[in-house]
Amino acid sequence: MHEQHTFAIGDIHGRADLLQALLEAIDKRAAGMGISYRIVFLGDVIDRGPRSRDAMDIVANTLDQVSGSHLILGNHDWFPIRILDELAGDKQHMALTHWIYNLCGSATLMSYGFDPDDFSVEDLRTKFPARHLDLLRSAVRYVELPHHILVHAGLAPGIPLAEQSRHDLMWIREPFLLSTQSFGKTVIHGHSVTASGQCEIATNRIGIDTGAYCTGRLSAVHIHPDGQLAFLQTDPQKPGDVMIVTAHRV
């Protein structure tokens, strides 16, 4: 049996159309190469884009159907379960307001058919699909491969992987993005939209958040068992098409 390949997908942010096209291209590529594969979503499935509910359905179905696949929890994905599971009283209502109006949670709620201006914590608890809340609750913090570490935002320099804080894994930008320190393995991450709008390779990390919700470019990296990489990206001119692209070195 062939060793399993991994396809890591960057921040989706409600672009279910691009996600569907990318997953179909991945499946076609794997079939053509005769390989077994899994999908790792790097987080931020929801918010900003128009079809968060559909994106969540696609992710949930993929995790059910493609063995060994994972969702890594992104900072946007965390907010609904943070509100319900980690806060109480006024803090819940404050966090809900922050999510809706500052993190573009309004787009997520509208995709579920809710009015963001008339949505309560109780609505989130009782009307938001339980399957989707459970999906977020079961998301992992990171995925470690033989040559790479897959994470949503990045790692704090100088701290062992097992001791990284959940906050840094979901939220960090600096000092991670400017660090030249080795993390032991190359870190593949999303969260921070690349300056070039393309996947970017630095000395110790690879960024694959290409701003799908506004650029039309949803990116994935094909990680071979031996650590070789290839990059796939949806075509902003033809959203149903997926290209093999060259990552930028920064």
Automatic annotation (TrEMBL):
Does Translocase show up as a keyword for this record?
no
InterPro entries assigned? Ap4A_hydrolase, Calcineurin-like_PHP, Metallo-depent_PP-like
Q: Where is the Calcineurin-like phosphoesterase domain?
A: 8-192
Report if keyword Metal-binding is assigned: no
Q: Name one GO cellular component term.
A: cytoplasm
- Gene Ontology MF terms in the entry: bis(5'-nucleosyl)-tetraphosphatase (symmetrical) activity; phosphatase activity
**SUPFAM superfamilies (alphabetical):** Metallo-dependent phosphatases (SSF56300)
UniProt-listed GO biological process terms: RNA decapping
Q: Which UniProt keywords apply?
A: Plasmid
Tell me what this protein is called. Metallophosphoesterase
From which organism does this entry originate?
A: Shinella sumterensis
